[in-house]
Amino acid sequence: MSLVRNLTVIILAFGGVLSVNAAEPVKVGILGLDNYQSIEHAAFFNNPKAEENLSGLRVSVVYPVTSPDYPKSAEFTQMWLGHLQNQYKGDPNFKPIEIVNSMDEFLARCDGVMIWTLDGTRHLEQAKAVIKSGKPFFIGRPVAAEAKDAVAIYKLAAEAKVPVWSCSQHRFSPGFSGMRNHPEVGKVIGCDVYGGFATMNVPAADKFTVALHSIETLYTIMGPGVERLSCESTPTAEVVTATYKDGRVATYRGIKDGTVKFSATVFGDKGVSTAGIYGHGVPVKGVVPTDDKYMGYGGLAIELAKFFKTKEVPVSAAETLEIFAFLQAMEESRLQNGATVVLKNLWEPAK
Question: What is the DSSP string of 167-180?
């Protein structure tokens, strides 16, 4: 009989019963509970009936750090903590998630880390501890509150050869990611993205989150390579025009007033099509599906499961730092009354 890796096979000679015990799942730790996504991803990985592409992982430990500088951090943490402990309590195979009170305890009890703390100003400090442990990790948006901290995280991780990545969940929403090779669009020449844009009266940690979902959508469809942009700001919208090095053009309309929807119009060498809407699939003959399986955070969860099993990052440091450079240039252009700003190369210092 051939041996199967990671399986223990016991054959009971008289009863003819075959018992197969699967290998222990990858233990994932959650750092910070004030972001609702922490609860959603724990539900994906700890679901006893998880689909194959989400199986083989388990959220085993949580370190519920909070931020006194972030509104409602402690309140959200307490709310989600109780929810987390009761997600699958009725299941006979339920294993309580450990709650710890120190980084050392936390890192000793997991194989990989998801940083979900909302306060981006604390991500660099938290990332340093994870990098020192050598464990692969993901940082929920944003990577950091400032570009220099994002560069520092990727630099330290690269030097230590620790896999790390970050993105908005919009990157893996099928209605957006599927537009890059859409048969009715062909090669993407440009796109007009639209989505929400909060007012600028937000905590420092939210500096790069108010537009991040839509900018991530823009990069999902168009890819990296933006050379310069300009940003017009009015009480009703932020409108960005981005020019790529190869001459392609993309726009972003950040909606401040009126109904907020997240989607795009995509221009290609074969045709023009609206994109899908967040959580749903790609359009067919211009019709956007809304009665298909809702993915929401599901696409990101699948990529996280792959990552913790393979340690291969699906979004490069260079692309993520270009998105930061985009957001930085967008802010500079706004302050300069819509002047064109060339993107800085933030990745070079990280090499």
Answer: E-GGGG-HHHHTTT
**Does 222 map to a domain?**
yes
> What is the dihedral sign for C-alpha 268, 330, 240, 242?
negative
Q: Which of 221, 220, 243 is nearest to 231 (CA)?
A: 243
When pLDDT is cut at 50, 70 and 90, the band that residue 86 belongs to is confident
How far apart are the C-alpha atoms of 283 and 243, rounded to whole Å?
Answer: 26
Residue 244's domain is classified under what CATH number? 3.30.360.10
Chosen domain end from 144, 169, 194: 169
Residue 141, Cβ neighbours under 10 Å: how many?
Answer: 21
DSSP type of residue 122: G
pLDDT at residue 14 tops 50: no
Are β-strands 98-99 and 57-63 bridged in parallel, bridged antiparallel, or unpaired?
Answer: parallel
Residue 22 has pLDDT above 60, yes or no: no
